[in-house]
Amino acid sequence: MKKLVLAMCVGLGMSGAVYAADGVVQITGQINGNTCQVNGTANGTLATVNVTLPTVSKSALAVKGATAGTTPFVLNLSQCTGTTAKTLFELGSTVDQSTGNLVNQANGGAANVQVGLLNSSFQPINITNNSASQSVSITNNAATLNYYAQYVATGAASAGAVNTSVMFSMQYN
Q1: How far is CA 32 from the centre of its chain?
Q2: Which terminus has fewer CB within 10 Å in the chain: N or C?
Q3: What residues contact 119, with CB distance under 8 A and at least 6 apart?
Q4: Does any domain span residue 97?
Q5: For the domain that residue 137 is a member of, what is the CATH number?
Q6: Is the pLDDT of residue 76 over 80?
Q7: Computed over its alpha carbons, how large is the radius of gyration of the chain?
Q8: Cβ-based neighbours of 120, under 8 Å, separated by 6 or more
């Protein structure tokens, strides 16, 4: 019996999975020494852009897909190097992965309301993949990126506050 248990233990020890390398993922990148100033903030300082959407009636957001309160906001870049700049909105807990919009974070706030971002051509930006985000030329070490924010109904909206945010990064070439 002891020999059988010993043989089984040896057999189990030899029956491990076999692994072999099938390829290599080669990763390259570049670190830029200087970044642009965003809306006048010092390099390396987090820029805060405040956007206040107008108060709208819940009847304007009565059906799924309805939008209201489109409000412009601008990212002014200065002291830039490179030739192009692009905004990358960061995927995080405030982003609804199914819609690509920003979820309402207000406690007891309006139900069935998200905030959508639009590029300068009024095309919706799906934050989950940054589709329709924009790239602009840097001229004389400066660039301007125009965006819009708007309410987006995910169903019949209820009255209440709307509060959300999204982190962004700038990509330079």
Answers
A1: 21
A2: N
A3: 125, 132, 133, 134, 146, 147, 148
A4: yes
A5: 2.60.40.1090
A6: yes
A7: 25
A8: 134, 145, 146, 147
In DSSP notation, 35-80 reads --EETTPPTTSPP-----PPP--GGGG-STT-EEEEEEEEEEEES-
User: Is residue 9 in a domain?
Assistant: no
* Residue range(s) defining the domain that contains residue 143: 32-172
The dihedral sign for the CA sequence 88, 93, 96, 98: positive
161 located within any domain: yes
Domain count for the chain, please give it: 1
Using the structure block, give the residue that is written with the tokens 């506050």.
161
CA distance 104 to 86: 26
Dihedral sign, Cα of residue 158, residue 152, residue 161, residue 163: positive
Q: Does some domain include residue 102?
A: yes
Reported for 49-52, long-range contacts at CB under 8 A and 24+ positions apart, including other chains, are 49/73, 49/75, 51/149
**Phi-psi domain of 129 (left: phi exceeds 0; alpha: psi -120 through 50; beta: other):** alpha
106-157 pLDDT, tens digit per residue, is: 999 999 999 999 999 999 999 999 877 889 999 999 999 999 999 999 999 9
| Residue where the block lists tokens 């095309």 | 123
At residue 161, what are phi and psi to the nearest 5 degrees?
A: -75, 155
